[in-house]
Amino acid sequence: MLAKRAPPQRAHGAPNHVRIIGGQYRRRLLEFPDGAGLRPTPDRVRETLFNWLGQDLPGWACLDLFAGSGALGFEAASRGAGRVVMIERDPRAVGALEKNRVTLGASQVDILRADALAWLANSRETFDLIFVDPPFDSGLAGTVLAELAPHLKSSGQAYIEQAAPVVAPAGLIVHRSGRAGRSHFALLVKE
To answer: Could you tell me the pTM of the whole model?
Structure first.
């Protein structure tokens, strides 16, 4: 009888990885550090989201609040977004995002070290698509949702991922929604 082997253990401090699933950077790995509440959007959920969006985002302006691993923002850049702004406050995560931007040659990606809520309150920019995937169980998505409509272009869309079902605030409607494990996600459209 063969003995079962234990799964390989990651060395403490070793980087985590997430794979880009579509577009020009398809199959490329992104490295990111460990962090409290940092859980990249799973491949299956990203695939569903980009099926909803139509796969390609030619020339779109995208905002990735709470960028974390950068999985959503780099996926958008890979699929033709003209500009992707990533907001992240954790310095280690920002360093990993910058390294991944250079590795991919993703010059359309701007990475800003800032608090997402403060940045949103002080920005007047508008976007075609905004990703809101705050640290899991933080409750921040609801706070951000209430502030999104002025930052979306006409018929702009927002993707939300959180622990609770997504409820659209005034000015937005839920276009599509789903659930994967404990995560609820939805694509909202500006009214």
So the answer is: 0.87
125-165 residue pLDDT tens = 999 999 998 887 777 888 899 899 999 999 899 999 988 89
Max CA pair span of the chain: 66
The 3-state DSSP class for residue 185 equals: strand
Of 85, 83, 69, which Cα lies nearest the Cα of 35? Answer: 69
Residue 61 vs residues 19, 36, 42, 90, 177: alpha-carbon distances, Å: 22, 28, 23, 23, 22
Residue with the two structure tokens 């991919």:
104
- For residue 125, the Cα-to-chain-centroid distance in whole angstroms is 18
Contact partners, residue 64, CB within 8 Å, separation at least 6: 70, 72, 73, 76, 84, 85, 86, 87, 131
Q: Which amino acid is at 2?
A: L
Give the Cα separation of 32 and 63 in Å (integer): 19
Sheet holding 172-180: strands in order across?
A: 109-113, 83-88, 61-65, 127-132, 152-162, 183-190, 172-180
Q: Which helix (H) or strand (E) holds 35?
A: none
